[in-house]
TrEMBL record:
SMART domains: EFh
The keyword GTP-binding appears for this protein: no
GO molecular function term, any single one: calcium ion binding
Domain (EF-hand): residue spans on this chain: 12-47, 94-129, 130-163
Gene: Dsim\GD11700
Cited Pfam families: EF-hand_6, EF-hand_7
Annotated Gene3D superfamilies: EF-hand
Keywords, comma-separated and alphabetical: Calcium, Repeat
GO CC entries: myosin II complex
The protein's name: GD11700
Length: 163
């Protein structure tokens, strides 16, 4: 198993982190902004405050400074830094359990389904400015069985699907 700073992570967890990184590299520039890192963290089951987020990101920049690695933009993470930041947190994470926690966080009325309103609410919480069409597109993409609502099965299937 790959090892990062003494923490063992599985190849599956590395793949999960790589998928999260690629999915949330919204501008496709090979790095994640703080906002994109937060979205990626949420996707792998981590609720995090803005202060905690910046502490995590800056810990990676500090590691680079200590180890004489050039730091160009300390508020952006490339894939290697993202994996290094997340590896210690992934050691004991069961991805489906993390997805269940994330799903439950989004499913505001706890009825077992995520609706357009739930997606709109989580986007507001995340500070995302999205149109009704964007929300509709997101819901259609995640609604794997096409029944007009997102079940836990749809959500997990979407999150495990290749990009």
């Amino acid at each position: 198993m790959p090892s990062f700073s003494g923490n063992e992570v599985t190849n599956e967890q590395i793949d999960e982190l790589r998928d999260a990184f690629e999915r949330y590299d919204l501008d496709s520039n090979g790095t994640l902004s703080a906002h994109e890192v937060r979205l990626a963290l949420i996707s792998v089951g981590y609720e995090i405050t803005e202060a905690e987020l910046y502490d995590l990101i800056h810990s990676v920049a500090l590691y680079d400074l200590i180890h004489s690695v050039a730091v160009r933009d300390e508020d952006r993470l490339d894939l290697k830094k993202f994996i290094r930041m997340m590896a210690p947190r992934m050691v004991h994470v069961d991805s489906d359990q993390s997805l269940l926690r994330t799903f439950n966080m989004i499913d505001r009325d706890r009825d077992g389904y995520v609706t357009v309103q739930d997606v709109r609410a989580i986007m507001v919480v995340l500070g995302e400015v999205v149109t009704d069409d964007d929300i509709k597109d997101i819901c259609q993409a995640v609604d794997m069985d096409g029944d007009g609502r997102i079940s836990l099965r749809d959500f997990i299937g979407f999150m495990h699907s290749p990009i």
